[in-house]
Design brief:
By secondary structure, the protein is α/β, with parallel strands linked by helices. It has 23 helices and 16 strands. Strand 6 and strand 7 form a beta hairpin. The two termini are about 45 Å apart.
Length: about 550
Amino acid sequence: LGAVLSVKEYASTTGAGMLDNLLALPHEFILCQSFGFVDRQTSLSAMNEAERKMIATESGAESLILDIQDARNDLASGLSTFGEHHISLTVHAGDKDRLDFGISDILSVFTNIGLISAREDVNLEPAFWANLPGNFSYIARRSLISNKNFASFASLHTFPAGSKTGNHWGEAITRLETTSGTPYWFNFHERDVGNFTVIGPTGTGKTVLLTFLMAQAQRVKPRSVYFDKDRGAEIFIRAIGGDYTNVISGEPTGLNPLQIDDTPANRAFIKDWLDLIITSDGGAKLSPQESDILSDAIRANFETPPHHRRLRYFSELLAGYDSGDAYSLSARIAKWHSQGEKAWLFDNEEDTLSLGNSTLGFDLTSILDDAASRAPWLMYIFHRISSRMDGQKTIIMLDEGWKMLDDPVFTYRIKDWMKTIRKQNGILGFATQSVRDALNSDVGDTIIEQSPTQVFLPNNKASEEDYCKGFGLTHHELKLIREISPDSRCFLIKHGSDSVIARLDLSGMDDFIAVLSGRTESVNLMDQIISETSPNPEDWLGLFIQRRTQT
C-alpha cells in the first residue's frame, strides 16, 4: 500500500537540513523534488503581482511585503534566482494501519518545520507519475521559491551505513540497526588500524556489547584474548570453547617466565621483566654494575635445565654476586620467591601457560588494583601473546583496559606495542566505565589517538570536559549520549568520519544474554554444572540454559 503527500504551503523561513528528521522515522518512503528555473522577468512579475494583492487587500501583512521586497532586490541584483518547485513524499507500508501510522508521523514532521501538506486523492495518479524524471506535466502543486530556499530542502544528509565489503578483514564484522531502521555495517578497522574503545557506565550493556562483537568476529576465525573483570565474560569464553584463567591473589598462577625458550628476544624480555619486579617497591633503578650482574645471572639461568629455572634458584645466582645487604639484588627479589608475599605469581615449578587455544580469557579482578602484581603479570602475558602473533587475525580485548595498563612501565611501551600488534594483523579493544579514569591514565592519550573506532554508551551524567575536550566529541554528540535511554540499547559509534546512533536490541533473547554477560549467580551455576559434567561446552551449555530458565 502507499500514499502520496504533497507540500502545498511553505514555511516562513528555511534552513539547512530541514528534512533531516524524516530520516529518523521508522517508515519506508520516497521523497521527490523538482526545481525548474524561471527567468528573471517572469519572477519579478510574479512578485509584483503578489505584492499588489497584499496591498490591495489591506491584509496588514507588512512583514510579508518586506520579505517580497527583499527577495525582489536579491533577484534584481543577481544574488538569487527563482524557480518552480514541487516536493512530494510517497510512503509505503504493508497494511492500512501501518500506512496511516506512517502518514501521521510524516505530517507531524512537516508541521514541525512549517510545511503544510495534503494527502493526494484526485491527483494521486498524476502525483505518482510526477516522481519519474521528465514528467513535469504531471506536477499538480508547484510554487515559486528561490534557489536559496531550494538548497534548504536538499537531501544532503543521511545515516552512515558503514562498509559492508572491502574492509581490512573482508566483509563487515556485524550489521547493527540505526535509529531510523537502516543497517549500519560495523567494522573495527579504519584502513589497517582496528583498535577501538568502548565507554559506558555500569549497567549500560558494556560486557554484552564486547562479547557480542567478539562473537560476531568469530566468522573471520581470529585468535581472541579477553582480559576480564568480575568474570563477566567467562560464560561466553567457555561457551565458544575457550580456556579461561581466574587469577586469584595468593593462589599459584602456574606462571614461570624463566622457563621460556632461550632466544635473544626472550633474554631481552627477561631482563626487562626482572628489572620491573626488582624495582616494583619503588626502589632505586639498577646501577650499571647491577645490570651487568643481572645479565650474567640470566645467561646462567638459560644454561641450566628447565626444572631448575625458578626465581628461588635465580636468587641464589644473584646472591653469588652481591654483598647480601638489604638493598642487594637477591634481597630485593626475595618477596617474589619461596615464602615471599608475591611468590604465588611466578615462583612456580612449571610454566603451565598454554596459548594453544584460539580463544583465551583471563580474569584480573583480584590484582586489578595491585600495580605491583598486575604490571609484571601483564608484561609476561603480553610478551607471550606478541611472540605468538604471526599475521593471523588477532583480537585482544581489555575490560578496564586503561586501569590495567596505567603503569609507568607501559607508558613508553604502549605506542610501539600497539604498532607491533597492528603490523601483525591484530587489534586492541579497550573498555571502561569511567571516562575520568581513562583520561587520567598515563596511557590514555595514546590509546585514544591510536583507536579510530569509539563506542559511547548512554550516560546522562556525561560531562563536556571529559567527552568533548577529552574524546573530541561535538556538543550534539554529547547531547545524544546524555539523552539516550539505557533501555533503548542504543549507543553512539564514531568510526572514521561516521557518527551514528546504532542499536543492539536483544530483547527476548535472555538465554543469549545470560551467556554474553555473566552475573554472580549465573557464573556460580556454570561452575556447578561444569563440576558435574566437563569443561566441554557440548556437555554443560545446554544444561546451563535449561537450569537457568528453571530458576
